[in-house]
Amino acid sequence: MKITINNQPVQVPEGITIMEACNSVGINVPSLCYLKDVSHNASCGVCVVEVKGAKSLLRSCITQVTENMEITTNSQRVMEARRVNVELLLANHPQDCLQCDRNQNCELQQITFDLGVTCKRFVRTQREIRPKDETSLSLVRDPEKCILCGRCVAVCSEVQGVKAIDFSGRGLKSKISTFLDLGMGIVACTNCGQCALVCPTGAITEKSAVSEVWDALHHPDKVVLVQTAPAVRVAIGEAMGMPDGSLVTGKMVAGLRRLGFSKVFDTNFAADLTIIEEGNELIDRIKTGGVLPMITSCSPGWIKYIEHFYPKSLTHLSSCKSPQQMFGAIAKTYYAEKAGIDPRNIVVVSVMPCTAKKFEARRPEMDGAFQYWKEKVTMTDEEHFFDVDAVLTTRELARMFKETGIDFTHLPEEQFDNPLGESTGAAVIFGATGGVMEAALRTAYEVFTGKTLANINFTAVRGLTGIKEAEVDLEGTKIKIAVAHTLKNAAILLEQIENGTSPYTFIEVMTCPGGCLGGGGQPIPTNYEIRKKRAESIYYEDAHKGLRKSHENPEILTLYNDFLIEPLGEKSHHLLHTNYIERGKYKKYN
Amino acid sequence: MEALTNSIVPEIILDEIVEKYKGKPGMLLSTLEEVQEKNPLKYLPCETLTVVSQKLNIPYTQVYSVATFYSFFNLKPQGKHSIIVCRGTACHTKGSKALLDEVAPILGFKRTEDETESSFTTPDNEFTIKTVACFGQCAQSPVVAVDGVIFSNVNSQRLMKILKKVKK
Known about the structure:
By secondary structure, chain A is α/β, with parallel strands linked by helices. Chain A contains 20 helices and 17 strands. In chain A, a hairpin with a 2-residue loop joins strand 15 and strand 16.
């Protein structure tokens, strides 16, 4: 299709929007509400262009190109309109950019600068300061910074199918709110944080644990252990100025050591442990006629989702805690004993690509280590501690690196500490959708059949397709498996389970698009292309690991020998497994 | 206060209403409209919103979104009589602000300058006074609706007369 853009003749495919056409020839059209694959409600009016013959300016994000269309993006009229639309948004937006969480990574700030908006002509129309929503353990919403673009609403309902937030009111009173303005910590929100990831401003951010972690690091008596989730090593580099998806495991470890952590451990160790427990649980369920399909339980957003919306299916969840929680429980029992440290002095900090992990760490039942010690030594309830003390997102860790002036790109490559830093390739792929499934199959196959797996790459479960399925032959026992990412896709598999048509034996669910590598705590922006690059890095790390099956991790074998005795055993039951509660979609607001 | 505690539409009636509209286009609006009408205090308590949401299988937030968007829906109990003063542009130019300023204080209604739409109910639950953006009766502005009856070309004496009549 032939069109002209700024008098230049251009060939573009049929059916694309003006914005896409402009982008394809190197003209970047600014927008605050449009987001590929997520939001196209054309609310911000910043992407307007002039089209010959059209009465008014057109919003390029939703207008398709037509044959011989003459588009102008650089006329005075277009540029003035864009500036005015941004100025109108700024009228009600606070001017405290310097103190804002999103300073220097804010689309509104960037567009204001790019468009040359240098004055503030319009007065504020909002009379009241609208209060922050701090009810959630994971996320904070600041309506003052909200520009009503609707991206968060779109991602919450269209991508996740959760619908925790929506527009309410009208006109000047329009806002994004939860049901009855109850707050995100009270309604059925899964804490996935995808809203924070797509917000163009600082209106939704994670609840920061940075100062808490600094306090621990500066405390003279505390032994501060850190664990890093698999998806952090392929994303933190981006926040430190490196190319998208850079694999920076060694630098990240070096950086963490320079922040002052006593030991730099790896959640991957616990991921291997999860596979041993979960793989054995699956085999046990298959052999003893337990509830099938079994569904993975690593993703805390997903756990809260099923607790809210599909409580009837809770028995399908693996009883395994997530790797983060397994790590905390093992660090404060096994490691504390081994290293001779009073568990009360241990502070476990997690670095996660995830906002829901902050909530997970505060689930009341996540204090296995405290319960373990309470039976051994006298501990009062005042001394109560959780298995994981603080959770940082990838973004928060980047902030800490910056605060201390660490020149990340020039850090040396360092190794994780032992014993809780040893891991296999099976663990690192936990960070990508399909990874837990693949890791579990590598172990379950060998444990179930007693034979060595010829090809350990289960490529059918890799990639960014919404729901992937495969059939696996466990030497005669054929099982069907499925992998879903995003909660909307998970819901499809749950509906099958609830109406009795699910053909699967084992299902992996990850809350976020792409799995943890696309988590709500990852650097902004996180989009499809970036997710793909992070996934490539994850599979690269797996391919280059010496050991690629969880049950071959020597430190895991030692852990079982010296402490846990056997998978699904008594100690595992107390420290590594958990239970779930029905939260209710309607009546209970927790 | 007794009226307040009895102000929730019984489930049986709710079921009837829902049954009537379920699956039809615009079911949420129609349901909310009729449920509010059946409520003795002419409003939608949060219990009602949750039940409607469940029965129609529409997310909580969407129900809340709709209920807060339309000024027709009330989330607070309404007085026995409703007085709706139009604050649209035409009515404004014909003095609806002065009308409101004169009448509202008599009922104890304090309004703030900036509010384009607001609602106030007298403590004795006799009157709810509300403003809306436009009735679509601009030719006869200023317009006031009292208990659903629209009065046009209203001035303050006329409005006081109407109110006296209603109160009896």
